[in-house]
Structure formats: structure tokens, C-alpha cells
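With this grant's support, we have settled on a layout for protein records. An illustrative entry appears below exactly as we store it:
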Amino acid sequence: MASEYQKENTDDPLIETKNEVKLDDTSNQSYVESGEENEEIENDNLEKMILSTGIRVGTPVKTKFMSPFIVRANPEGLYILDISKTLTRIDVAAKFIGRSDISKIVVTSAREYGKTPVQKFCEVTGASGIIGRFMPGTFTNPSLSSYMEPEVVIVTDPQADQQAVLEATRAGVPVVAIANSDNVTSNVDLVIPANNRGRKALATVYWLLTREVLKKQGKIKSDNEMKISIDDFETKLVEELS
């Protein structure tokens, strides 16, 4: 009788289900751990890739405005910017942008290497871009056909985009600027310390900013959902296009 009872319990579907649940729990735990490991590897690879673009490499000159964002000088005499502050400021800028009407965000770049990054940022987020020469009076002269009333102005270089910075300041519009070690940022409300001369560096800054803005807009929930690559933000050289 005991053997029959044991046999019956061996075939008990409840016991089998419990055993399956234990196996499933172990499998799920392994899957979660594996997923976390893969995410860590992806994040490490992304961090290395970001640093390889020269995003933190400044110039041989530093200003008093940018000194707080500099960690050291490399053997070549170039000042190295603090990447942790770069990433923090990008997040702050994204929150700032996220609280505004995205169609009222104006992004400017007089620099050639900033052309594609700005265009892509505007295309993906819905912001407005001004590429090349900034027409005087764009933010201050309502009689111009190009007149705009932005809520926030983002400039690729506060020196090259000086006219946009001055007019935004006069109009009382907050200015966010990507600034290198040699930039003067007296009229800038939020500095994003980064290499604003390099092709790949600028693509990376705008890619990171786009990703964070999309998260604040609720269009993506995690970093991994960002399907557009940094390469999509990079201005191509003529020989690369031919």
C-alpha cells in the first residue's frame, strides 16, 4: 500500500507543477542574470566607444569659465574635460528641454561638423534648427520673415554661434551650450563641457542628448531602445560620400 501511495504521489500533477515552477524559477533567474551581464557588457562597450570619439579632449587653452570642467592636461598639452560632468549636464539639459515645447527649442550650428548632428537631433525630437550663418535679428526683430521666439536655445559653440547667444540673452531666452576648454560662457545658462570641434565628438554629444530627450518625452523607456546610431549623427566628409 505504501508503495502504491508513493507511486500515486509521484504522478501527482500538483507535485509535478511545483517541480516545474522550481525549474522555471531557476531558469528565469539565470535568464535575468544573463540579461544583466549582457547589459553591463553593452554599457561598458558603449562607454569605451563614447570615449574613443574624443568627446572629452579639449584644446591647449583653458578659460576661467571652463576650469571647473577640466580634470587634467594630457602629454600633448590638451586639456581633458570631465566626462562625468558632461553626462550629468546632458541629462540636466534633457530635463530642461523636456519641460518646454519641443517646437520652441532652437538649435544652432555655424560649424560644418555640427550640421548633421543638429539636423538629426531636430528630425528625431521635433526641435527647430538653424544651420550655417545666423541671420541677425532672428530672435530680436519681429519684422523679419525668419523671426523666431524660442523657449530655449542650444548652441554648438558659444564662440561660432555668438550672435545666437547674444540675441537669446537680449530676449531673455535660456542658452544651453556645448563648450570646449577655451570657450567663454559668460552668457550661457547651462554648459555641456565637451569637444565641440571634432566630427565624431559632436555626433556623440547630440546622440546622447537626443537619447535623453526621447526618454523624457516618453518615446523610449531605456537606453537600449535607442535604435539610431552615433554614425547617423556624424557629418560625412566629401571623400566618404563619393
Observations:
- The chain has a mean pLDDT of 86.
- Residues 9 and 15 are 8 Å apart (CA to CA).
- The helical segments are 2-10, 13-52, 83-98, 115-125, 162-170, 199-217, 238-241.
